Amino acid sequence: MKLLIISVLLTAASAQIFNSTNYLNYNSSSENNCENVLTVLKNRGLTTLLGLLAKTELDSVLGGLDGFTIFAPTNEAFEAIDSKVFQMILGSPDLLNQIILYHVVPPKMSPTWISALLFEYYLPTLQGEIPLRLNVYRKKGSSIVSGEIVTVNGALIFDSLQVCNNGYVYFIEKVLNPRDLAPDNTQIEVLKNNGFTTLLKFYEILGLTPEVNIFFRYETLFAPTDEAFAALPPGTLESLFANPRALLRNHFISGTFYKYGLVSGPVPTYSGLNVEVEVIPGGAIFGNANVVLPDLTTVEGVIHGIDAVILG
């Protein structure tokens, strides 16, 4: 239950503006002047993370490890969490340990290794049960950004990479939550937790259940809000309920495209309809709909809440 509550509130705290001009900047100059990971964090001013490592006594563990990667949230990332939620995390040693350990990956991951990834990769963590999702977005078609952007669970890896004598540090813009990729964090569960009640009726008509199909493909859902359906002309919603599969297929695209993976241009949906995506300062537009709730991570991919229905 605690992880569920934290998931909802950390998701709200992580809402950031769209910015497809931020790229991972590898600071290779530090390779020949390596420092301990704790020294790197101190030099970069990540005092909150350092304090939490000390509180959980994980600082000594990390300081002694040889061969690991840490995704390090900034102080601002921690400040974005609701203060009451943050205090609840601090008051639960087990939960705090899970969250901190979820940011640490056992193998060293160099920039070269990351750049060689095709698109999506899953990494084991010291948390032990739930992986991290690494996405590399590069020029590969109209729906993928030009250049290279790397995200972990949708969080931008930004600024620079520090190479240490016992691992790598990647700086990220938000705190990662193990709940995001828990096996039961399905599309349907995330839609329920975020109030998409009308859209869920289409799933119910089709008899879809929260259980994850092991043969699912990773996908992005642009999910109309209840207000979007309420704004339809009289009688339209009833007609859509008569063919629920067609309506849903208009809102799915193949692959996991967090907000940093979206670029302007047409993108094919499952229905075959090409929908125009436009990335604008502070947001994105999908067809005639604004993205109003981006980056809701699911085990199947990601959901973006939108304020209009795509009718085709």
The main sheet comes to:
7 strands, mixed
Beta-strand share of residues? 25-35%
Question: C-alpha Rg, in Å?
Answer: 20 Å
List low-confidence stretches: 12-24, 26-33
String of helices and strands? HHHHEHHHEHEEEEEHHEHHHEEEEEE
**How many extended strands?**
14
The dominant shape is elongated
Q: Strands across the major sheet, in which order?
A: 2-1-7-6-5-4-3
Specify the structural class.
Answer: alpha+beta
Question: Could you please describe the fold and organization of this structure?
Answer:
This protein has 312 residues and is an alpha+beta fold. The protein is 31% helix and 26% strand. It has 13 helices and 14 strands. The chain has helices spanning 2-13, 37-43, 47-55, 58-64, 75-79, 83-90, 93-101, 111-115, 187-193, 197-206, 226-230, 236-241, 244-249, and strands at 68-73, 104-105, 120-123, 132-138, 148-152, 155-164, 167-172, 219-224, 252-254, 265-268, 274-280, 283-286, 289-298, 301-306. A seven-stranded mixed β-sheet has the order 2-1-7-6-5-4-3. The longest helix has 12 residues, at 2-13. The radius of gyration is 20 Å and the shape is elongated.
What's the quick description here?
The protein is of the alpha+beta class and 312 residues long. It has helices at 2-13, 37-43, 47-55, 58-64, 75-79, 83-90, 93-101, 111-115, 187-193, 197-206, 226-230, 236-241, 244-249; strands at 68-73, 104-105, 120-123, 132-138, 148-152, 155-164, 167-172, 219-224, 252-254, 265-268, 274-280, 283-286, 289-298, 301-306.
